[in-house]
Amino acid sequence: MESRGQTAEIMIAEARKALWVMVGFLAVIWVLQIPNWLSGYALSREYGVQAWNPETLPGIISSAFLHWSWEHIEGNSGPLFVFGFLAAYRGVAKFLSVTALIVLVSGLGEWFTADPDAVGAGASGVVFGYFGYVLVRGVFDRHLIDIVIGVVMALSFAYQFTGLLPQEGIGWQAHLFGFLAGTVGGWIFRDRRAAASKPAAPPASGGSRSSLHKELDDLGL
User: Could you report the per-residue pLDDT of 131-167, keeping only the tens digit for each?
Assistant: First the structure.
């Protein structure tokens, strides 16, 4: 059985991996933005998603790495890093599975429901997917600290929910399906071992506080 010190070391190592994964992700999309911009955003047009066009099906994946302007990529980069890191810090392997689900569902949802005359590109569907995942993960995993993080993120970024509503000129379909994929991913990739180890009996008085202290100890805080 792992000690709290070992658990904290593992989580710190995973958090470091998560940090580098997100730095790498951002580096890729920013590097791609340079030739995309120089070509007049031909990459976004060629490798983006156009609804009901079979030729653009590969764009379900590639479109998440492309943007339409410097303002577009700047607006996505901050939330992408914050939500992505919070989604990844408990385990990069699980995070990659969650990311694959979000990218596929977000892209397919856009392909089936978006305006056929428009071409969609951008990482915002992934951003909303991570957002949804962070909101629900603590509930499914039964990690109190993650529940707290989810509540704080929901309150701090409440304005993000407006991106799920139909808006002219905005790829809200990718946002909505990405968000749904993230919430479903929280259940699919839940920590079953942690859930199974929880006692069935109701906690004694002060149990919530003790659980929070244990979570903080596990994180080395």
Answer: 999 999 999 999 999 999 999 999 999 888 888 889 8
Q: Taking Cα atoms as reference points, which of 97, 35, 98 lies closest to residue 66? A: 35
Checking if the pLDDT of 17 tops 50, the result is yes
CB 178, CB 127: distance < 8 Å: yes
- What global pTM score does this model have? 0.86
Question: Rg of the chain over CA atoms, in angstroms?
Answer: 19
Task: Quote the mean pLDDT of the chain.
Answer: 88
Which segments of the chain are extended strands (E)? Answer: 49-50, 119-120
Residues 129/130/134/140 CA torsion (nearest 10 deg) = 50
Residue 50's SS3 state is strand
Looking at residue 55, the DSSP 8-state letter turns out to be G
87 closest CA partner among 124, 137, 128 = 137
In this structure, what is the dihedral angle of CA atoms 212, 215, 219, 221, given to the nearest 10 degrees? 20
The rounded distance, in Å, linking the Cα atoms of 214 and 221 is 10
pLDDT band for position 197 (50/70/90)? low
